[in-house]
Amino acid sequence: MSTPDRRGMLDRADKALSIRRQCMLLGIARSGVYRPPRPANDNDLGLMRRIDELFTAWPFLGSRRMTAMLKAEGLQVNRKRVQRLMRKMGIAALGPKPNTTKPAPGHKIYPYLLRNMTIDRPNQVWAADITYLPIGRGFLYLVAIIDWASRAVLAWRISNTMDTSFCLAALDDALARYGRPEIFNTDQGSQFTSAAFTGALAGAGIKISMDGRGRWMDNVFIERLWRSLKHEDIYLKGYANGREARAGIANWIAFYNGRRLHQALGYRAPMAVWRERMQAAKAVDMMDNADALTTCPQQQQQTGFLAA
To answer: What pTM was computed for the model?
Structure first.
């Protein structure tokens, strides 16, 4: 998920750098940080929704091909406007592209840890991403955390800004309810590379993995989640405001976790798979512990016999 503009690189939770200092480093005015952005006009909102629909269907579309497709539909739009709106929405083509995505100043980029890894157990790898949500006369952002092996949605939050706080809230919720993963994978968005977010992961003893630039397959499962959510819920219902969107998305995610069957999971629901595999893992651990308890006394007796 790319950052919509340089204001999105600000980390309000950073204790070391004040907002004033961060604005100086990024070369932006503080007034633009504290003053809420002007709402998009109706023409922009309609176009943003169509861009989102096209991007969700074909996430490899960049601004050039996006502009061509919009013009083919009879829309009078130039590429600069499409680029501006795509930045505002926080989307960029997922295919290979030049090195144009710059990490936020001072943010550490972590290596990708999932290459050639077999991921087949719950809480082995979690992944997170942010997507754009069109609503009524505006838009929101949604972050979700999924378990890679089961594809279960473990936590999610909605926000009207692309800051770090709602990502941290989702992370805290997932850790409190489902334990902790061995590895946490994200893209290189400033929310996920921020000191607050990576610090929370490191503090919990979680290994941090980040997608390589241009590697759209690195977070493919959560991209599929966005496609399903939008086509099965968001676009069909057209929520008027944040309250409606929050309630509707909660219902859809409950359906997705508990009742939506996945062919890749043997036609089982994601949360059922997560629970089954967690129980199986616990059973294996108990058996290992039982073996250790039964073998230790025998070893002690054998050692005592030999010593005598």
So the answer is: 0.74
